[in-house]
TrEMBL record:
GO terms for cellular component: cytosol. This is Mevalonate kinase. Residues 259-337 form the GHMP kinase C-terminal domain. Keywords: ATP-binding, Cytoplasm, Kinase, Lipid biosynthesis, Lipid metabolism, Magnesium, Nucleotide-binding, Transferase. It comes from the Bacteria. Pathway: Isoprenoid biosynthesis; isopentenyl diphosphate biosynthesis via mevalonate pathway; isopentenyl diphosphate from (R)-mevalonate: step 1/3. InterPro entries: GHMP_kinase_C_dom, GHMP_kinase_C_sf, GHMP_kinase_N_dom, Mev_gal_kin, Ribosomal_Su5_D2-typ_SF, Ribsml_uS5_D2-typ_fold_subgr. Gene3D superfamilies: 3.30.230.10, GHMP kinase, C-terminal domain. GO terms for molecular function: ATP binding; mevalonate kinase activity.
Length: 348
């Protein structure tokens, strides 16, 4: 409880005229409400795709991520007819305090947000509609937390700042994954690509790459928390080898950023392949993901790799044209992918 009080005091100070060492310099969050009273609070967010740099980003190496606007999250908050907070989502309907363990991050972010805005007595109904596939490495938990915080602040007409949103969501992410780079939180609340490093201010940019990204859901649940813990264990057991892998992946990310800026899709595709090779050697891929990657290569993709935490989840591939991308998409489906999406990189 002492720690919680310190967190709340910190968050309230974020709303004062102070400068914090956080990515947004205390600017008002773009979704913050107007002065118009609303009977229903609303919050939105979306998923993300890690283009390059999974796992190494946790250890302060760079990563590139894209907003995944095809997977939105919408949350509404309104007064509850019951005597306590209630939650309604695809996984659970009932009292918030009775939510299953894998939703404890939502409990935590609701408690922190209501404490911050000093509104802890009114029972609320929180309704979550998420199109981000859960446990696929697409930032589902962060996207839901961002939308929940925005909806709560909208309901109470609280002028949420970007710093507060970032901090609150990352606290929930620590519950969901034990360790967090912060990149999921950033991507869930922004609509530009980002090159990110934990120790540095994020750089948002537009891709404008003449290529298509094909995203494939393997249909197999990813295991981000386990994968992050497994990499941490390997780092303790063989620090020299794992540090070399991390550093090399970090170099690939820098090269990938330069390739995007140079509109060099061929080079970016090659870097996809290199990145996947090293992730596989970190033992965070899986036979199913490797088979999807091989299917993309066989179908003529410029490159392919797993994306997200791994041990299941999704694969991405790069193609020069939409026609090529559709061919890769079909190859993914033939290999057993549950769902595919096409992203025009020129529009990101």
């Amino acid at each position: 409880m002492v720690l919680l009080r310190h967190i709340i005091q910190f968050l309230r100070r974020c709303n004062e005229a102070v400068t914090l060492d956080l990515p947004f310099n205390n600017q008002q969050d773009i979704s913050s409400p107007t002065n118009r009273k609303q009977p229903v609070g609303r919050g939105k967010a979306h998923g993300k795709i890690i283009l390059m740099g999974e796992h190494s980003v946790v250890y302060d190496y760079p990563a590139i991520a894209l907003p995944f606007m095809s997977a939105p999250v919408s949350v509404t908050v309104q007064p509850s007819s019951h005597k306590e907070h209630a939650l309604n989502c695809v996984y659970y309907t009932g009292p918030l305090k009775g939510a299953p363990f894998h939703l404890h991050n939502i409990q935590h972010v609701v408690q922190l947000t209501l404490s911050m805005i000093d509104q802890e007595t009114q029972p609320l109904l929180i309704d979550i509609d998420s199109q981000v596939p859960g446990e696929r490495g697409m930032g589902s938990s962060a996207a839901v937390s961002v939308a929940v915080v925005r909806a709560l602040c909208d309901f109470y007409q609280y002028p949420l700042t970007s710093d507060q949103l970032y901090y609150l969501t990352n606290q929930a992410e620590l519950i969901a994954h034990e360790a967090t780079s912060g990149i999921d939180t950033l991507m869930a609340s922004h609509d530009q690509a980002i090159i990110y490093r934990k120790s540095q201010a994020p750089e948002f940019f537009n891709c404008h790459l003449d290529a298509y990204l094909v995203v494939a859901d393997s249909g197999i649940t990813g295991q981000t928390k386990q994968a992050v813990s497994f990499v941490a264990h390997q780092l303790k057991q063989t620090p020299e080898k794992v540090t070399h892998y991390m550093s090399t992946i970090g170099d690939f990310v820098t090269q990938a950023y330069n390739a995007i800026k140079a509109n060099d899709a061929d080079q970016l595709g090659r870097l996809f392949t290199y990145n996947h090779y090293y992730l596989a050697h970190l033992n965070v891929s899986s036979p199913e993901l490797d088979q999807l990657v091989n299917a993309a290569w066989t179908a003529g993709a410029l490159g392919a790799k797993m994306t997200g935490g791994g041990l299941g989840g999704c694969v991405i591939a790069l193609s020069k044209t939409k026609k090529d991308a559709l061919k890769v998409s079909q190859a993914f489906k033939d290999q057993g992918a549950q769902q595919t999406w096409l992203l025009n990189m020129k529009k990101i």
